[in-house]
């Protein structure tokens, strides 16, 4: 804003203000700006905010040359606005001038006008109608400045008491006030920022018949599995599509073109004669069974996230009722989905242009249908293959009536689309974490999470039904533990697809990232009770996350130097409590690694080189560190230190 005082470089501002920034209830949101004017007079700044149920203002703190910072803590879900006002601060200018003149030895006659100016500033505040409580204090200070019987230093000291300074700071004289532009922040509920996700297929929870043949699971059998998931400390249970699965062009096991008579098909081939996106697969049960599943999840402290895939099987009811909602080929047939060289003959993509109004209305109806059945989180499949304008419309149409609903974008796409979808309104986004393995890659990735915190929240899934990361292929049990640790401590939100905790790493073909016997195309009952499992470590990670607020927000992530490329070190600090958690993770799943960590102690509020204590949440031991600390990690015993700084 260019006024009498210049206000520029305001943050958080997303895409020049075209889209709102993002925060959650209770989050400490940093506001910053550059404020300046001509000459040498002091300037100051105030942040003014307004939320759904009220607002406020706060004086900003100087931060470097011409910089100012402040923090706001929103307390309600919804749209918030803020602006930064810049102004000339005559009291600060006067104080600096008087200090310099007294230090130079100027006498009372030379300071006559200066004392009068200071008294006048005190009186301007004292006689404000809203400042009666400070009036006597400020008028006494003004009288002291005019008291010729005192020495200049005595007069100045009498007006510079802590009480006077506090009053003049809290109720300043603001000259040449320039009101800045108004910017927006959308504030979500806390689950938008912090949560641990567990993905499971209800149809795989039926166990096995005496013959060993898998039995199709139901919402009832899946409901019994919720206790196990809750016991591991997860917050969200995510279900792939639960709708009827198409029979036309159904895929067989491992994505085979021809399905056998007992093949169950891909849940993402949505729709059959039993219904479409608003129906449940009859083999899973009825809608009442789904409602009971959601209710039981809530009893255990779990939310249910539902997959939202806007695509259809060839026998979806929409195909016959609304053929105009689909793309047609030159021969008049409906086009199936392709991502060359991959073909998805069992899926028809939608055409969002031929009848945009009709399709939009139906999609919104479907979303509201599931909201009515207790779903408040949607994991959106491949949003980067649908029009951006559609998502912008749908998300904000939903939030207008249901501001607590969250949307996760499953978009493993280039940065333009990844961040673009986030700006359009997606609450969270899948990220490139899956393919970031080295210390340099992980550091760059983590720094981008912080840099983009105002526009994108990353959900760090360690695996998905589509992706068996190379980082866990042939890397043993420690490879799984390392990836879980990195995901759970680098981001406030992370996710696990079932089977990860059982160290499933069998690949369909060498050199690929596809699971053999993919659960996308067949039932995969698992013996969680007796199988060797990573569950104890996953549980401990989630316990640590819930216990320590430093791991529940994104902005306070800082990386620190190590002299070993197989060790990565970072700190997480919570601005509200001041808590800091220090993490050192080995990136080698096979060999013991040792080295020195050079902690930048100023990043978490300590003097450089100061001794400090940490409580390791992994070993439950106390260590004394001083900022240049030796560590050793043997992946056979522990893959990380996750240590809380013990504050005096």
From TrEMBL:
Species: Actinokineospora auranticolor
Catalyses which reaction(s): alpha-maltose 1-phosphate + [(1->4)-alpha-D-glucosyl](n) = [(1->4)-alpha-D-glucosyl](n+2) + phosphate
Role: Maltosyltransferase that uses maltose 1-phosphate (M1P) as the sugar donor to elongate linear or branched alpha-(1->4)-glucans. Is involved in a branched alpha-glucan biosynthetic pathway from trehalose, together with TreS, Mak and GlgB.
Gene it is expressed from: glgE
Subunit structure: Homodimer.
UniProt keyword list: Carbohydrate metabolism, Glycosyltransferase, Transferase
CDD domains recorded: AmyAc_GlgE_like
UniProt entry tagged with the keyword Transferase: yes
Name of the protein in question: Alpha-1,4-glucan:maltose-1-phosphate maltosyltransferase
């Amino acid at each position: 804003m260019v006024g009498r005082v210049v206000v520029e470089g305001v943050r958080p501002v997303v895409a020049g203000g075209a889209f709102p920034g993002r925060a959650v209830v209770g989050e400490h949101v940093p506001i910053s700006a550059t404020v300046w004017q001509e000459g040498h007079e002091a300037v100051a700044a105030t942040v003014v905010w307004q939320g759904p149920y009220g607002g406020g203002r706060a004086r900003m703190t100087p931060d470097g040359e011409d910089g100012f910072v402040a923090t706001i803590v929103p307390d309600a879900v919804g749209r918030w606005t803020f602006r930064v006002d810049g102004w000339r601060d005559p009291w600060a200018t006067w104080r600096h001038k008087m200090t310099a003149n007294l230090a130079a030895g100027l006498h009372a006659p030379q300071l006559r006008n200066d004392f009068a100016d200071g008294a006048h500033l005190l009186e301007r505040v004292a006689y404000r109608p809203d400042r009666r409580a400070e009036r006597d204090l400020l008028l006494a200070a003004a009288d002291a400045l005019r008291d010729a019987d005192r020495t200049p230093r005595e007069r100045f000291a009498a007006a510079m008491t802590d009480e006077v300074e506090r009053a003049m700071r809290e109720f300043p004289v603001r000259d040449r006030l320039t009101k800045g532009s108004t910017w927006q922040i959308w504030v979500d509920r806390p689950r938008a920022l912090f949560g641990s996700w567990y993905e499971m297929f209800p149809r795989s929870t039926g166990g096995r018949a005496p013959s060993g043949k898998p039995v199709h699971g139901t919402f009832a059998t899946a409901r019994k599995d919720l206790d196990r998931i809750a016991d591991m400390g997860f917050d969200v249970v995510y279900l792939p599509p639960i709708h009827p699965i198409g029979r036309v062009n159904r895929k067989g096991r491992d994505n085979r073109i021809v399905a056998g008579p007992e093949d169950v098909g891909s849940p993402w081939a949505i729709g059959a004669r039993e219904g479409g996106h608003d129906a449940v697969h009859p083999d899973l049960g009825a809608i009442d069974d789904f409602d009971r599943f959601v209710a039981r999840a809530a009893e255990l402290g779990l939310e249910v996230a539902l997959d939202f895939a806007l695509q259809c099987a060839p026998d979806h009811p929409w195909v016959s009722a609304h053929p105009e909602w689909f793309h047609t080929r030159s021969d008049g047939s409906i086009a199936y989905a392709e991502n060359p060289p991959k073909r998805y003959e069992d899926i028809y993509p939608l055409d969002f242009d031929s009848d945009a109004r009709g399709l939009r209305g139906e999609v919104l109806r479907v979303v509201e249908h599931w909201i009515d059945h207790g779903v408040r989180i949607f994991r959106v499949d491949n949003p980067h293959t649908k029009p951006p304008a559609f998502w912008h419309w749908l998300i904000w149409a939903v939030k207008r009536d249901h501001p607590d609903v969250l949307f996760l974008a499953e978009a493993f796409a280039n940065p333009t689309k990844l961040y673009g979808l986030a700006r359009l309104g997606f609450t969270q986004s899948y990220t490139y974490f899956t393919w970031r393995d080295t210390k340099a890659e992980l550091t760059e990735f983590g720094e981008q999470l912080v840099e983009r915190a105002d526009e994108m929240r990353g959900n760090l899934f360690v695996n998905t039904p589509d992706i068996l990361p190379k980082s866990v292929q042939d890397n043993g049990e420690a490879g799984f533990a390392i990836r879980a640790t990195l995901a759970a401590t680098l981001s406030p939100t992370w996710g696990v697809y079932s089977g990860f905790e059982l160290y499933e790493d069998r690949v369909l073909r060498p050199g690929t990232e596809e699971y053999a016997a993919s659960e996308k195309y067949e039932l995969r009952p698992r013996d969680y009770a007796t199988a060797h499992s990573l569950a104890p470590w996953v549980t401990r990670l989630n316990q640590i996350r819930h216990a320590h607020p430093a791991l529940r927000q994104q902005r306070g992530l800082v990386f620190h130097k190590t002299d070993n490329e197989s060790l990565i070190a970072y700190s997480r600090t919570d601005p509200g409590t001041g808590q800091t958690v220090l993490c050192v993770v080995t990136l080698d799943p096979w060999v013991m690694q040792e080295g020195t960590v050079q902690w930048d102690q100023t990043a978490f509020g300590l003097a450089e080189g100061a001794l400090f204590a940490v409580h390791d949440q992994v070993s439950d031991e106390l260590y004394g560190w001083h900022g240049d600390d030796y560590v050793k990690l043997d992946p056979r015993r522990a893959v990380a230190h996750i240590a809380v700084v013990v504050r005096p």
